[in-house]
Amino acid sequence: MLITVTPAFAVNPHFGHTRISGPGGTGSLTVDFSAGGIYYPPLAVTVSAAQDTIFACKPPVGDFLPNPYKQEVIDSVYSGGGAICVHNSCRGSITILPPETSLTCEGNMFPTLAMITYTDMHIGGMFGDFQILQKKNTRHLFSDVL
Known about the structure:
The chain starts with 13 loop residues before the first strand and ends in a 6-residue tail after the last strand. The chain has one domain (14-137). Strands 3, 4, 7, 8 and 9 form a 5-stranded antiparallel sheet that branches. With 146 residues, it is mainly beta. 0% of the residues lie in helices and 52% in strands.
């Protein structure tokens, strides 16, 4: 008995829609997506972006002090996940989180996310169908420290 195994391929893979929400108050960015033409799940999807984040020291009560200590973190980020597939259609959601900070604050002040910007966002699957989602998505959480 001869058994052969052939690889499974997507016939006409494509992203249907992508919806971006955020960055919210926590700095996270969520991308909801759908993809079609996927006849052999599972589907692995990745969202990537350039991320520019500013943290600043804030007292426990009140506004930021003039000229607070700041830290800027610039990085390329990505997050991946699977998708729920029914027949040849898949849908899913991926969230990118802000980075951790190493900012040290004096006294009882604590590091707080002040601004986050995502640029050059892309979504792609194992089939390589990359799409540019949005050029720039900025959230100024505390504009008085910028």
